[in-house]
Design a protein that fits this description.
This protein has about 575 residues and is of the alpha/beta class. The chain has 19 helices and 26 strands. It has three domains: about 240 residues, 3-Layer(aba) Sandwich (Rossmann fold); about 160 residues, ANL, N-terminal domain (Rossmann fold, 3-Layer(aba) Sandwich), CATH 3.40.50.12780; about 130 residues, ANL, C-terminal domain (GMP Synthetase, Chain A, domain 3, 2-Layer Sandwich), CATH 3.30.300.30. It has a five-stranded mixed sheet with strand order 11-12-13-14-15. It has a four-stranded mixed sheet with strand order 2-1-10-9, with helices on both faces. A four-stranded parallel sheet has the order 4-3-5-6, with helices on both faces.
């Protein structure tokens, strides 16, 4: 599908627009640690980006060369991306939590010519994944080792004259290669053009209220397609003010600083925020207060202010299914969350709900997007102006990504309600058959399990078992609770009630034989979750499948698997 976009909507042209029309407006606010915060105006952002672009060109890098960015979200992440585009090159963002082997795989597959190294927690472990001889440039917030052993951004900017003029890139030209998080195998390099990014933002602005007064906190990885489109390209389109988070321990203070008017988070973090509230106000007490007309408004305001979301006019979730129960809970405290749907291959923008409406669905398509269901499998298939150019260096995988008549496979199953809203019912390949010949869709069951306060992540499995089983990764607080005998007994009783209440809502063939509570964390390093916090079902099943039969026949509601 051809994407036709006006030249003045493309990324570089938007940069020049803000440079000309709002040079002294603060664009980025970056915490530097120790309570120190630095603002960057549009003039400063462009000056820094132009200087780095001139340096990149001085290294002999050619138009179309790939340049990688490995960093948490910072002002210099965005300025690196802008510099790469100004220099005529293509950016390759890497998740800041990747294992060394994956880093090497992406850098080598993309044939990256240079790597920007920024703010990272695990650089000592990660740096072995950087191919020997690959030039690196360190950001100001990069680990000390990276700054000592590589040219530093500030030194380069201080000694390099800024690139002059207003170089442009055609809309159809490749802007970035975004590697998928690897839920279903090795990461694939998704190629997107400047026009695709511009189209997504223009279309999203009809549903998401971004303008010059908007404040957003950027903390989910900019290497992920949602943050990239919503924050980076949303800012280029609207001129909004972007704040960055310092670290996990200061996240509450970072939210209070930004007081975002638009806020996006993944389900796992929305659940964490909810658990934080309920740890201070027990659910029963909160329910009573919210039923009192006089107290209701005060309680809602107090909770949202404590979260830093008192000024939020648009909240959204996505990247994984949002449990309807969670959406209803937030609605009760006055925060109506829109649920979006999409994938890296179409810049994560195909569907979104109106906040507070059509709960349990992902709403209807954005303007210009087409959606259909395969009559045989129920698979959701999409046509969109933001569809990828293809997988980098993978023509056969690119071909397989589309139907014969040009629709993109999503791998997700869905159904439409009477109003035309799309409901995601699971993954085509995740559905499994028990030994009784009955099919089980794990996603709706997992939505229920993950709402428990002790559960960090979960996976329902059981192909060829008599009944499914649920694997639960316990969170840190629950693991600590296990150290005390009374705490263990209380947690076991609570999880047993979770099993019973969940099974009561399921058909007999879906009911779980047991829940397996695991204390070992599922992490990116042990390859049990992706950098976007999605569970790698295949990896978990491969690792634990030898135990499934034994666990299912132990005759216990809760089975402990402790490290």
């Amino acid at each position: 599908m051809t994407t036709i976009i006006a030249d003045d909507a493309l990324a570089l042209q938007r940069l020049y627009h803000w440079e000309r029309t709002a040079p002294e407006r603060v664009a980025l606010t970056q915490p530097l640690g120790g309570g120190v915060v630095r603002d960057y105006t549009w003039r400063e952002v462009l000056d820094q980006s132009r200087r780095m672009a001139a340096h990149l060109q001085s290294l002999g890098l050619q138009p179309g060369d790939r340049i990688a960015i490995l960093s948490k979200n910072t002002a210099h992440w965005l300025m690196s991306d802008f510099a790469i585009w100004l220099a005529g090159c293509v950016s390759v963002p890497l998740f800041p939590t990747l294992a060394p082997g994956t880093i090497r795989q992406i850098l080598e597959h993309s044939e990256s010519r240079l790597l920007f190294v920024g703010k990272l927690d695990g650089w000592d472990h990660m740096k072995s994944g950087v191919p020997e001889g690959l030039p690196c440039i360190s950001h100001p917030l990069a680990p000390q080792d990276a700054q000592e052993n590589n040219p530093r951004w500030d030194d380069i900017a201080a000694s390099t004259a800024p690139l002059q003029g207003e170089p442009v890139r055609p809309g159809e030209e490749l802007a970035s290669i975004i590697y998928t998080s690897g839920t279903t195998g090795a990461p694939k390099g998704v190629m997107h053009s400047f026009a695709a990014f511009a189209w997504v933002v223009q279309t999203a602005l009809k549903r998401v209220p971004l303008d010059g007064s908007t404040r957003m906190l950027s903390y989910l990885p900019l290497s992920h397609v949602v943050e990239r489109a919503l924050v980076e390209h949303g800012q280029l389109a609207s001129g909004m003010h972007v704040y960055f988070a310092d670290r996990l321990e200061t996240f509450a203070a970072d939210l209070q600083r930004a007081r975002p008017t638009v806020f996006f988070s993944v389900p796992r973090l929305w659940v964490k925020f909810q658990h934080g509230v309920l740890a201070k106000i027990p659910a029963a007490k909160l329910d009573r207060l919210l039923q009192l007309p006089i107290a209701r408004g005060l309680v809602r305001r107090k909770i949202l202010t404590a979260l830093g979301l008192q000024d939020c006019i648009f909240a959204a979730g996505g990247a994984a299914p949002m449990p309807p129960e969670l959406l209803r809970w937030y609605a009760r405290i006055g925060l109506h969350i829109a649920e979006g749907y999409g994938m890296t291959e179409n810049l994560a923008a195909t569907h979104i709900t109106v906040p507070g409406q059509a709960i349990g669905t992902v709403g209807q398509t954005y303007d210009g997007v087409q959606c259909r269901l395969d009559p045989a499998s129920g698979e959701i298939q999409i046509k969109s102006p933001a569809t990828m150019l293809g997988y980098y260096k993978e023509p056969e995988l690119t071909r397989q990504a589309f139907t014969d008549d040009g629709w993109m496979h999503t791998g997700d199953k869905g159904a439409f309600d009477a109003a035309g809203n799309l409901k995601i019912t699971g993954r085509v390949k995740d559905i499994f058959k028990t030994s009784k010949g009955k099919y089980v869709a794990p996603a709706p069951i997992e939505e229920r399990l993950v709402m428990h306060a002790a559960v960090e992540a979960c996976c329902v499995t059981g192909a060829n078992l008599g009944q499914p089983i649920g694997l639960l990764m316990l969170n840190d607080e629950a693991v600590r609770q296990l150290q005390d005998p009374a705490g263990r007994a209380e947690l076991e009783a609570s999880l047993a009630e979770l099993l019973q209440s969940t099974n009561r809502a399921l058909d007999p063939h879906e009911q779980m034989a047991c829940l397996v509570a695991m204390t070992e964390a599922w992490t990116v390093d042990n390859e049990l979750i992706t950098p976007t916090l999605k569970v790698k079902r295949n990896r978990i099943e491969d690792l634990f499948a030898a135990n499934f039969e034994r666990w299912a026949h132990m005759g216990r509601a809760i089975v402990w698997h402790e490290q």
